[in-house]
Design brief:
- The structure is a single chain.
- The protein has about 325 residues and is mostly helical.
- The protein contains 13 helices and 2 strands, in the order αββαααααααααααα.
- Helix 1 packs parallel to helix 4 and helix 6 packs parallel to helix 9.
- It is elongated and about 70 Å long.
């Protein structure tokens, strides 16, 4: 063989250089995203009132907060009835739109507004850190702003559904907003005694929000159904002192079970059995007031009849048929 025969050269078929180029490009993308996240986080956290779990006074009465961050007065802005463009289409979660008046964006802290609006449009355009803060401010307004819980639940439904649809083909979906909603609700419930001490109305609004978001997302948004664990826990608290001695809280307990009791039982029979056992114990407790026993008895009979009262029982409680 000729000693000066040309070398065949490097075999590039393995694509090693191509892999290096791809990794370099991916690293550049990650660096750019990290810089964007840092900038968005700095802008948002300057205005968001949520603090860290270690230092936060989560249930500080809204009247003691700044006028821009507090939404406890229940007043609404004068925004018109124009619809926000949150997708326009209908899905299995219902109407995917809210009016500007319903959202009342002006009563959110200024730095959070653009991220809330963007999340309603396309949560994938909002960084994970900012999505977490969006979830926190929406959930906290749900209990601070009397009567806002339905809108807050609808906003959570819309964002969680869009997040699911945008990540459905991802290898490892993050579901940051969905997870943050559940974590925020769990943190609030963990401190429910403190919340109730600051105001029973706040506690009641929080449970109404849990019931509403459970009702709205149950047949649609994937992954948020775990919210019923927190709802079951809150309802169980209502069956015990001091809640069982307060008319508004017993009325709330019965109202929620009338509305979603059957669905809750379908989703978790064991937890419903435990809750009904707590209701029965409260009914038999000598300290329970007569008016409370009457309301609890209605729910016990409603559940015993498969969540649909017979005409005679409905006539007794309501003076008419119960569908």
């Amino acid at each position: 063989m000729d000693q000066f025969e040309l070398s065949p050269g490097l075999d590039m078929e393995h694509g090693f250089i191509r892999h290096i180029q791809q990794h370099q490009y991916s690293r550049k993308q990650l660096d750019e995203e990290a810089a964007l996240n840092k900038e968005q986080t700095a802008r948002l956290t300057r205005g968001v009132t949520m603090q860290s779990k270690q230092t936060a006074s989560v249930y500080q009465p809204p009247g003691r907060r700044g006028p821009e961050s507090s939404a406890a007065t229940g007043q609404r802005s004068d925004a018109g009835g124009q619809r926000l463009n949150t997708g326009g289409q209908r899905s299995d979660t219902g109407d995917m739109s809210l009016s500007e008046e319903e959202v009342d964006i002006e009563r959110y802290v200024a730095e959070a507004r653009p991220y809330i609006l963007e999340a309603l449009q396309s949560p994938s355009n909002v960084s994970n850190t900012c999505l977490k803060s969006v979830a926190e401010v929406i959930v906290n307004r749900a209990w601070e702003d009397i009567g806002y819980y339905r809108t807050a639940a609808a906003m959570c439904q819309i964002i969680a559904q869009k997040e699911y649809e945008q990540q459905v083909h991802d290898v490892i979906p993050t579901h940051t907003f969905r997870r943050s909603v559940m974590e925020t609700c769990a943190d609030i419930f963990k401190n429910h005694t403190e919340l109730r001490e600051h105001g029973i109305n706040y506690w009641i609004e929080f449970i109404r929000f849990l019931s509403e978001i459970y009702s709205q997302i149950r047949s649609g948004t994937r992954g948020l159904r775990g919210i019923y664990d927190i709802l079951f826990g809150a309802l169980d608290v209502l069956t015990k002192p001091p809640c069982i001695a307060a008319f508004d809280e017993v009325e709330l307990l019965c109202s929620v079970l009338r509305d979603v009791g059957h669905s809750l039982e379908v989703d978790s029979l064991d937890q419903m059995n435990n809750l009904i056992a707590s209701l029965r114990d409260a009914f038999l407790e000598p300290q329970t007031e007569e008016w409370a026993r009457g309301m609890l008895l209605e729910i016990l009979e409603l559940r015993a009849s498969g969540w649909k009262l017979s005409p005679s029982v409905a006539e007794y409680y309501y003076g008419g048929s119960e569908s």
